Amino acid sequence: MKKRTPVKDIMTSNVIALQTTDDLETAESLFKKNKIRHIPVVSGHQIIGMLSYTDLLRISFADATDEYATEVDTIVYNMFTIEQVMAKKLVTVTSETTIKEVAEILAEKEFHALPVLENGILVGIVTTTDLIKYLLDQY
Question: What is the pTM of this model?
Answer without folding.
Answer: 0.84
